[in-house]
Write a structure and sequence with these properties.
Organism: Mycobacterium terramassiliense
Distance between the termini: 53 Å
GO molecular function: oxidoreductase activity
Radius of gyration: 17 Å
Shape: globular
Strand order of the largest sheet: 3-2-1-4-5-6-7
Low-confidence stretches: none
Keywords: Oxidoreductase
Structural class: alpha/beta
Pfam families: adh_short (PF00106)
Family: Belongs to the short-chain dehydrogenases/reductases (SDR) family.
Order of helices and strands: EHEHEHEHEHEHHEHH
Helix content: 40-55%
Oligomer: single chain
Bound molecules: NADP nicotinamide-adenine-dinucleotide phosphate
Length: 254
Amino acid sequence: MSIAVITGASSGLGAIFADQLAQRGHSLVLAGRDETRLKAVAHRINQNAELVVGDLGTDEGIDDLIAHLGDRDVDVLVNNAGFGTYGPFAEVDARREHELVAVNVDALVRLTHAVLPGMLARGRGGILNVASTIAFQPGPYQATYGASKAFVLSLSQALWAETRGTGVTVTALCPGPTRTGFVDALGEDVSHTAIYRRLAAPEPVVAAGLRALDRGKAVVVSGWRNRFTSTFARLAPGWLSARVAGRMLRPANA
Ligand SMILES: NC(=O)c1ccc[n+]([C@@H]2O[C@H](COP(=O)([O-])OP(=O)(O)OC[C@H]3O[C@@H](n4cnc5c(N)ncnc54)[C@H](OP(=O)(O)O)[C@@H]3O)[C@@H](O)[C@H]2O)c1
């Protein structure tokens, strides 16, 4: 059976990726820190999924997941684990930002390096990297998070171009604000902001990502509203889209 690996599979989009990839008949490797929630996901999808418990913010956590995969044939890798921070850059917890880069960027790069050569040798496979609509413009008050997702978008597009014609494809999924634990984990109430006031349902986001991977698309932005705003962000000069995004993300007390 073909193997699909999902990071951050214990909740939110990752748990739904587990549902939808199990329905497609994949055998799953589910990675996350929270073993109880990973078990609950495996139980719900009624599959003997392999669970890899570890912190992808640490070298040890990434090494363990790569060692678990060994030289097995991975058909699909969903680099989904990630989190955000919120607040003026000078005031957010520097250690948490460092951890953010480790999970959102370093782990994704290392896992991609671990599976891509095997996919290319076999001439088939797909890597779906979960970026964000914040990747299309600077994100004041989520500066490091936005930069991490811009990295994911850029890397994915570059790898999409490198792998064309090989049977392997790389896609960046760019969700807008979505109803998952992500928003609560920002650590501050963001419901007053124009960005996080309205949250999309997560199931169609995941379906859009997998459809785009099937079609070999480089990038997919889920939802017409997000497609509209990200087009503006891409066309506008950086200083303008940064200022607009800053207004839409401004903390209540700033
Ligand atoms: N929801 C949104 O508005 C939104 C919008 C755009 C992009 N995204 C992106 O979507 C992806 C999934 O997030 P979500 O919305 O589904 O949020 P979520 O419900 O909070 O899920 C995040 C997942 O990442 C895992 N994770 C976080 N830190 C980790 C670490 N140090 N090591 C290993 N796993 C870790 C968590 O697993 P454990 O807790 O078990 O470790 C959890 O399963 C993220 O990359 C996020 O940036 C979300």
